[in-house]
Amino acid sequence: MADDVVKRVRTRHFANAKQQGIKITGLTSYDMLTAAIFDRAGIDFLLVGDSAGNNVFGYDTTVPVTVDDLIPITRGVASAVKRAFVIADMPFGSYETSSDEALHTAFRFMKETGAHAVKLEGGVRSAEQIRRIVAAGIPVMAHIGFTPQSEHQLGGHVIQGRGDSGVEQLLTDARAVEDAGAFAVVLEMVPSEAAARVTAELGIPTISVGAGPHCDGQLNVWTDWAGLTTGRIPKFVKQYANVAQVLDEAAKAWAADVASGAYPTPENSYDG
Ligand code: KIV
């Protein structure tokens, strides 16, 4: 949706982008420094994902992540952007039991972080929560297909939406979240053809996380394509940088200069 005249991305820009066939771009961000870089690069939205569990907090999954974990890092991201739309991810256990609980969590993110919207996982099962949050004036991005918070129930990182019944389930979930008022829906790890069907049928934009090229936008976990992730890199990720190598070389050069006395020089020191 890159467009210099858009001063601040709003939900209407997501809708316009779908209508005009302009691709929407999104990246995760977990801190103010990368948020400012991605914002200047013209990325349309930043998701403060509960993938912070794997990328910030050292967990194996997103399951242990809490609202209190995500509030301060979401605030950092929101404080650093001028144009990008910032979406706070509602973590596992913060919205499932009732729409009251979901609304309470959404209110916390909106009041305490400066985020512009929230995201939550689930189609039909989360429709009531989405409806309630939207009715309170908070934009919701939905998330269907592979939903990492349910990875133990789904049997690991398993592609969703395969076969006739898989596609039907995906369509049912997609219709439910659109009907509930979501402004966009993430489709994670579903076959391209299934994502194309959902994209053609829905009025709201579909955002692909490993759902192929036919979606209205793409979202990636930035550490995956930046060469920082040390664990499993999904097949749908393409490498764009090797930040780990850059930092490794810089850290070794700095330590060698300290050892040899080449750093600090008088230019890096204060006079009496
Ligand atoms: O937390 C996250 O980064 C996500 C994306 C993978 C959609 O939910």
* Count of folded domains: 2
Bound molecules: 3-methyl-2-oxobutanoic acid
Q: Remind me, CATH topology of the largest domain? A: TIM Barrel
Low-confidence segments, given as residue ranges, are none
Number of DSSP E strands: 8
**Main sheet attributes: strand count, strand direction, barrel closure:** 8 strands, parallel, barrel
Number of helices: 11
Beta-strand percentage?
5-15%
Q: Which homologous superfamily in CATH is the superfamily of the largest domain?
A: Phosphoenolpyruvate-binding domains
Mean pLDDT: 96
CATH architecture of the largest domain: Alpha-Beta Barrel
For the record, give the distance between the C-alpha atoms at the N and C termini, rounded to a whole number: 54 Å
What spatial order of strands do you see in the largest sheet? Answer: 1-2-3-4-5-6-7-8
Using the CA coordinates, give the radius of gyration. 20 Å
- Helicity range of the residues? 40-55%
| H and E order | HEHEHHEHEHEHHEHEEHH
Shape: globular
- Structural class by secondary-structure content: alpha/beta
CATH class of the largest domain, anyone?
Alpha Beta
